[in-house]
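pasting input
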Amino acid sequence: MLSALSMGLRQMYNRQWVKGGLLLGLQIAYIVVFYPFFNIGLWGIATLGTIPQVDNSLDLMAEGIISILLILFGLGCYGFNIRDAYKVGKLRERGVKPPGVMQTFRHVTDQGFPYLVIGPAMILLVFVVLFPILFMIVLAFTNYDLYHQPPAKLVDYVGLDNFVHLFQLSFWKTSFFSGLCWTVVWTLVSTTVQVILGLFLAVILNQKKLKFKKFFRTILILPWAVPSFVSIIVFSGLFDNNFGTVNLFLQGIGLGALPWMTDPFWAKIAILLIQFWLGFPFSMALYTGVLQAISADLYEAAEVDGATIWQKFRHITLPMALYATAPLLIVQYVGNFNNFNVIYLFNKGLPAIPGQTAGGTDILISWVYKLTFETSKYNYAAAISVIIGLIVTVLAVLQFRGTRSFKEEGMIR
Amino acid sequence: MNSSKRQTYLRLLLSYLILIIMAVICIYPLLWVIGASFSPGDGIFSTSLVPKHATLAHYRWLFFNPNSQYPTWYWNTLKIALINAFVSVIITTGTAYVFSRYRFFGRKYGLVLFLTLQMFPSMMTMVAIYLLLNWIGLLDTHLGLLIFYAGTQIPFNTWLVKGYFDTIPYSLDEAARIDGAGHVTIFWKVIMPLAKPILAVMFLFNFMTPMTDFLLPQIILTSPDNQTLAVGLFSFINKDVGKQYTLFAAGSVLIAVPITVIFLSLQRYFISGLTAGANKG
């Protein structure tokens, strides 16, 4: 009972004087130090400030989120405290003397060792991953843009307006839906083709009688090894409308030059081709490893039964390869869904489309970049990021299902 | 029998044909950069695979022209990459060790959390990252960039290293414990010497990320003096007129060659790290 009132009291009641005192002191310090901060933080995040030029809405928002995180942390400690007091109480009821200070200290350094070590990593993760995500979510429900820049102006909550605009206001709607459609097509086509191409080449390279395997493997893995920012920019030169090698080649074999940089359709084709080039070596390397792990007995047994090459591939190679890599497949799809580099470095998501804020080849993530750093529409950028986050979360859940089903399968390793 | 032999022969021939075509496609753009870096002139029209009047002018410009910021970018990138590699190895080794060896409350949640976070690229929250760094005054500083690199690598690398630690027999720990070794002693004297290979790999991964990353430095580092190679090189061709492809090419060759060599030697660890994270729960 006492423990619920304040940290430390129950420990004192349990005659753990030093421990109780320490906990009580910690709690008082926590409240004294942070109370003003919580006060302004919670007020801040609820109202985002009331007086322009005095209240800075963004500061208040950040302070509010930190307050909430600190309060949650405090509550967590509190819960731990109650649990601890309950345990010691149980011990006392059974007539065991509660552990003394030195014992507790040793206990903490021993049992608490894991927490001590992962502590710094966790704090860093909270700061660079969790905090930005929370900040972005809050931002998605405000009107923070070029015309509402603190400290001169206040930022206000606008509820679901940003999302409603994206889905209903014609100007935003066309940009959003054409961007979303292209993102989905891009993700599916680029990933699927690069995986199939990688698997195909891995199978070819896995033939027993083939020579120069190592040579071909090294050459074919190069696109993955070279820093992608270099190769993408190189491709933007090769696909140049006037002087690019690709068009010179097409003209050389009697086909006309194509407007790779200026026509949305051909720009999309060019970007897809580049991504096939960039992406297949990863799958190839991955499947090479998987194929080598498949036991040769399976194939020999199949040969005895008179299976054709296709049957062997269809019934042995393919299922084994997919079993081993299903979770990674999803990671690859997510990777391309957010593949900012190839879109932006090729030609910055251009060509521009009249009546839209997103360029012809912009996927959602590169559109977010433009909204943030070119037109300062932070609110819409945040709202789109939240939508991207939801999609990624769904895929992550799928990935877990895959991973778990694996462990139960126990087929590979 | 004869026909099946011919079939095998045909299949091999076709395989070689496909492999040769793919090899040409893979290597052509790379040869093009090298050719372009020695080509005279600026623009893309003056480049060729084997330049007739090969010149070292672009390399000389990058290093000796007073207007060139290339040495600064190279130094910035190396500095960030090295610090990030050290810091990341220190943070992640401890975390991975604990997740591998201890059973504590929250362990499973932690691992699941890491697996999820590994899928969320930090760029998704770029709006927030930009505003937050601005808020605490770390925008346009290398420290701000380093915090994000060191933080976002934790989930993936923890899985990678934990997988390796799991393969070190637990009996070694127990033997040491019986001899009276504490947590820290076991970690330093028993585990660390055995884990050197994976630590080297993690060091190199974390060294290479800042060397090749584009988006984060593009967002965080705004002044030209602070920029890294990827962002700086992009500025050579990020112009409406007078794109300097040959300078870009020369600058790229000097970064791409060492990175490619390191990568080729590490690639199998990368694959094993990914499959470890994906398959073991």
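fyi DSSP finds 17 helices and no strands in chain A.
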